[in-house]
Amino acid sequence: MRTVLKSMQMEKYGIPKNVITKFEHVIEKHYVPNKGSREGDNKFKEAMEKYLSKEQLFHLWEQHGGCQGTGRDKERKAFFNAHADKPLHKKLEIFLKTIGNGYSTASSKSVILDTDKNILIVPFTCNHGFKHMREGTITTSLQFYYENCAGGRLYEFQKALGIKLKIKSVEVPSEINYESPVIFTFDIIG
Predict the structure, then answer these.
(1) Model confidence, pTM
(2) For residue 31, how far is the Cα from the chain centroid?
(3) Residue 58 lies in a domain
(4) How many domains are there within the chain?
(5) Which residues pair with 184 in a beta bridge?
(6) What is the DSSP letter of 120?
(7) Are residues 42 and 90 in the same domain?
(8) How many CB atoms lie within 10 A of CB 87?
(9) Which of 15, 20, 107, 121 stands the most exposed, by the fewest C-beta atoms within 10 Å?
């Protein structure tokens, strides 16, 4: 969360100093130096949910979203290099059949590339949010949890497909399952 705080302190995020002070207080009170803490993470995220606008949160998640799976970056880079010369729709098709095949099995709905509207729609079923809430390991809303998750999905698609995305929306159904997934919508901006 210290990394997120450093980003929050940058002017481009437009977060007032009096709000940033609240986050600094959470870190001072709830974090063990060089270790962090689950309680501190939860308190920090609760404050994010309370004090930041949707736009500020999305901007932060685009930089620091959860579940980025950075351990797969070599695989994503190799995929991009092998398919860099292909049009985006073809790269996406190959991605979903190979290293991104989890998106094909995570939902009854398909990933949609809408080149007319310049958006990528990603249905995704992940039960981690429910699991963590049942265990009490996260204390934010499911909406907040999956908005954070959107940053991880954005990261994965950007790395593998060589595109620049921006989080447009995150739709979280009341019950997440194969037939009713979370829907991440991203603007394609480059």
Answers:
(1) 0.88
(2) 23
(3) no
(4) 2
(5) 122, 170
(6) E
(7) no
(8) 10
(9) 20
